[in-house]
C-alpha cells in the first residue's frame, strides 16, 4: 500500500491546461480523502510561477529550478514546512490513480484548455490592471 503524506502543495500556471486537469483532480480527491489530506493549491500567473520556482528550495535536492521544467509543481510531506519535491502533473495524476483510483483520461483535453483560458482571464481581471492585446 502506498503511504499518503498528509500535506501536499500543488503550484501551477493558471493558464496551463494540464494544471487545470490537476485542479479538477484535487476537487475530487478532497471529497474522497475526507480529512486525510491537506492540499494547498497555488494558482499563479505565469511570471509569478517562474519566480516561485526560481526561489524554491528542496531540503534533499537543493534549488528546484535546477531540475523542474514543468508548468506545475507537486510536493508532499508530513509537515507543511518539510515538503519534498515529487514532480509535475503526470506524477501527481499517476499518484492519484494509484492511491485513490482517480482517472480522467477519457476527459477531452479541450475542456481543460477552455478552463485554463477562462481562469487566466479571471485572474487578469482580479489584478485590477488594464491590459490590451495586439495580434499581427
Q: Could you characterize what this model shows?
A:
The chain has 4 helices and 6 strands. 23% of the residues are buried. The longest helix is centred in the C-terminal third of the chain and has 18 residues, at 109-126. The radius of gyration is 16 Å and the shape is globular. Helices cover 42% and strands 21% of the residues. The chain has helices at 17-33, 46-55, 89-100, 109-126, and strands at 7-13, 38-44, 57-58, 62-63, 72-77, 84-87. With 136 residues, it is an alpha+beta fold.
Report the radius of gyration as a whole number of Å.
16 Å
Unreliable stretches covering 5 or more consecutive residues: none
Question: Shape, please?
Answer: globular
Structural class: alpha+beta
Q: Averaged pLDDT, please? A: 86
How many helices? The count is: 4
Largest sheet: 4 strands, mixed
Assembly type of the shown chains? single chain
Side-by-side strand order of the widest sheet: 2-1-5-6
Q: Secondary-structure element order, as H and E?
A: EHEHEEEEHH
What's the total count of β strands? 6
Estimate the strand proportion: 15-25%
Estimated helix fraction:
40-55%
First-to-last CA distance: 54 Å
Present the secondary structure layout:
Layout (H helix, E strand, L loop, with lengths): L6 E7 L3 H17 L4 E7 L1 H10 L1 E2 L3 E2 L8 E6 L6 E4 L1 H12 L8 H18 L10
Parallel strand pairs: 1-2
Antiparallel strand pairs: 1-5, 3-4, 5-6
Amino acid at each position: 500500500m502506498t503511504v499518503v503524506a498528509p500535506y501536499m502543495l500543488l503550484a501551477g500556471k493558471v493558464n496551463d491546461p494540464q494544471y487545470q486537469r490537476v485542479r479538477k483532480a484535487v476537487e475530487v480527491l478532497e471529497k474522497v480523502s475526507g480529512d486525510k489530506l491537506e492540499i494547498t493549491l497555488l494558482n499563479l500567473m505565469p511570471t509569478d510561477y517562474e519566480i516561485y520556482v526560481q526561489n524554491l528550495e528542496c531540503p534533499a535536492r537543493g534549488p528546484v529550478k535546477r531540475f523542474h521544467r514543468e508548468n506545475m509543481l507537486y510536493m508532499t510531506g508530513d509537515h507543511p514546512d518539510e515538503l519534498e519535491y515529487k514532480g509535475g502533473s503526470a506524477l501527481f495524476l499517476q499518484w492519484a490513480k494509484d492511491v485513490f483510483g482517480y482517472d480522467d483520461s477519457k476527459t477531452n483535453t479541450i475542456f481543460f484548455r477552455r478552463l485554463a483560458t477562462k481562469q487566466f482571464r479571471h485572474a487578469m481581471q482580479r489584478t485590477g490592471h488594464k491590459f490590451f492585446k495586439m495580434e499581427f
